[in-house]
Amino acid sequence: MTRRVTVGGLPIGGGAPISIQTMANADPHDFAACKAQLDRFTRAGADLVRYTVPDMEAARVLAKLREESTLPLVADIHFDYKLAVECAAMGIDKIRINPGNIGSADRVKAVADACRSAGVPIRIGVNGGSLHKDLLAKYGSPTPEALVESAVTQARELERFDFSDIVISIKTSRTRDMIEACRMLAAKTDYPLHLGVTEAGGGESALVKSAIGIGSLLGDGIGDTIRVSLSEDSEREVEAGILILKALGLRDGVDIVSCPTCGRTQVDVMGVSRRLSERYKAVRLPVGQTITAAVMGCAVNGPGEAREADVGIAGGKNEWLFFKNGAILEKLTAAEAEARLISEIDALIALRRER
Q1: Among 273, 253, 255, which residue's Cα sits nearest to residue 265?
Q2: What is the tens place of the pLDDT at every residue in 10-57?
Q3: CB-based contacts of 345: which residues, under 8 Å, 6+ apart?
Q4: Burial environment of residue 287 by CB neighbours within 10 A (0 to 12, 13 to 18, 19 or more)
Q5: Which of 43, 125, 142, 344 has its CB 3.0 to 4.6 Å from that of 311, i.e. a possible disulfide?
Q6: What backbone torsions phi and psi does residue 257 show, to the nearest 5 degrees?
Q7: 60: enclosing H helix or E strand
């Protein structure tokens, strides 16, 4: 088990629930745009949001944003160590740096001292596209071994300055390399690990890359916080992260299961399933309280195949069957069935949140 780091009240590592991160892409100098995007992240179910800080004006905007945020915020710093020092002093919840591009040892020490004084963790971010030239010369390319050596070296540099409140990320656009590197790193350190496939692109290809990379590691018990990096609206990153965690049983909410349909199907399974998934995608429930709702296309086999579901509907010719815990309770029209299922799910949500 990794050690625990606390980011603005959010525990990362040490057995804490896996947290979902995203990164804002609004103009970091535009407070209104950043705040509007932060509100969308909050509604989508994000746990942590990172902002680029290219200059002092952006740092001041982030500090103002922090005053109004219910989520912890991370300052992403490159090159100018003074910005990291200022953000720590301003109360930003975490600093993300690559010590290799911060500069000399005295600058790294200044960042470590500032973060220690403010109780602010540091995330070491190692990317395949920004490895130090010495490591590229040694390994010939950003291999998993090169990525791990970079991460460990940079962690040791912070440790030299009596700083160990660290989270580490190793990211590359090559999914297999990312998986291998994180497995190697997990065997070498107990620092919490942030997972993601960087530069994954957009659309289905990016989602598949991220699901395989992140999901493989989480399935191994490796990883404490994740980001699904997409060249799309950043809220999609949060939604995809939730889906990955729910698929692995690592986040509790409403799980909509539905059959793939066949020639017997005479009802709109896909439409109902899609609407329910959208309605309940951001619902989060206490640990162990996931609700499973089924939408099945066959009135003959549906309730039997989905008997483990809490509630469900199964379609037949011109009717739906409503069932609960595998038992058929009544026959309904299409309009009645969807409304009834929503009502039952809502009641279960209220009940399980009270437990």
Answers
A1: 273
A2: 999 999 999 999 999 999 999 999 999 999 999 999 999 999 999 999
A3: 254, 276, 280, 291, 293, 311
A4: exposed
A5: 344
A6: -110, 145
A7: helix 56-68
